[in-house]
Amino acid sequence: MTLTEWFAMQHELDQYIEREHGLENEDLVEKKILALLVEIGELANETRCFKFWSKKPASETDIILEEFVDGVHFILSIGLELSFSERDISLVSTEGNEDLVQSFIKIYHLIGELRLHRSAESFEELLRQYFILGQSLGFSIDDVQSAYKAKNEVNFKRQQEGY
Ligand SMILES: O=c1ccn([C@H]2C[C@H](O)[C@@H](COP(=O)(O)OP(=O)(O)OP(=O)(O)O)O2)c(=O)[nH]1
Questions:
Q1: What is the pLDDT of residues 36-74, one digit of tens each?
Q2: Residue 99 · residue 133 · CB < 8 Å
Q3: Within 6 Å (CB) of ligand 1, which residues are found?
Q4: How far apart are CA 116 and CA 136, in angstroms?
Q5: Closest approach atom of ligand 1 to CA 70
Q6: Of 41, 53, 122, 142, which shows the fewest CB atoms inside 10 Å?
Q7: Could you state, in order of their start, the residue ranges of all structural domains in the chain?
């Protein structure tokens, strides 16, 4: 799946949700930014990467991947809302062994930058760093795409069931 196809899938879901909730003309950027911050917090919680006080291991890989793709949904959705979906952004990177704590903190910072400047550059950097985090968590692009498709379907079903 190309990034263009990925944005197209997200666009269909977003439109469905907006229609379902009568929000077609609303500016949803701030809510989506907060939603993304919350999802990333949930992701960090499942990895337990910052819990120096605990010996409990991280959650199962599948759980972490599910949380990760919720973040992908909101990042793409914000990209669509800000009209960055036509840009040619490369997700392939050699990086990916960054310290998880640093990676999460960097991503939070980038979300703040994107909120302030709403620039294509800050969006691209956020998307890139999020996939580097994915790689550090052990996820290939294929893993992420499969899990994204599965969650996208769940999201449609939930809407159809009046979630
Ligand atoms: O405009 C939107 C709004 C939501 N979503 C997706 C993103 C994410 O995959 C899901 C919302 O997250 P989640 O499934 O965690 O929803 P929740 O309501 O927080 O779930 P729960 O009540 O189970 O915690 O909906 C979109 O793609 N576009």
A1: 999 999 999 999 999 999 999 999 999 999 999 999 999
A2: no
A3: 13-14, 17, 70, 73-74, 77, 151, 155
A4: 27
A5: 9
A6: 53
A7: 3-88+137-160
